[in-house]
Specification:
The protein is an alpha+beta fold and about 130 residues long. The chain has three helices and six strands. A five-stranded mixed beta barrel has the order 1-2-3-5-4.
Length: about 130
């Protein structure tokens, strides 16, 4: 009986954790604030429920600001044909997406264009988020 109660508790805690970690696009990002960044990829986190890249952007004053860019889940990116190895650190890229409502240096990325011309759709699969035109 105890082991069954423990299993139920653990399952409920797992579901609650997933629900808390997941969020809607509209809750955090502003579809009226499109952003385009040019910079250097400094880090990638290929994690659930969303992947993240970190882009170092040099301002006109020469100061470097690191932007945090949310992508879709790793499984969604894999289904689109993307791999973690497609994002080597140090590569120059241009990221488009939508700025966070809190005006931080965080955005929801929809696409990435590399210096060699490759362009990848990386937007999250949020049902209430804007879609990249394909």
């Amino acid at each position: 009986m105890r082991s069954q109660i423990l299993r139920i508790f653990m399952a409920a805690a797992g579901v609650a954790g997933l629900a808390q970690a997941h969020h809607s696009f509209a809750a955090e990002y502003d579809s009226h604030q499109p952003v385009t960044l040019k910079g250097v990829l400094s880090k990638i986190e290929w994690t659930n429920p969303h992947s993240w890249i970190y882009v170092d952007v040099k301002g006109e004053d020469g100061k470097v600001t690191t932007w945090t860019v949310e992508f879709g889940a790793p499984n969604a990116l894999l289904r689109r044909g993307l791999r973690k190895s497609d994002f080597p650190t140090g590569v120059e890229l241009t990221v488009t997406g939508y700025r966070a409502k809190d005006a931080s240096t965080t955005m929801n990325g929809t696409s990435v264009k590399f210096a060699d011309g490759r362009s990848l759709f990386t937007g999250s699969s949020e049902p209430d988020g804007p879609r990249a035109e394909q």
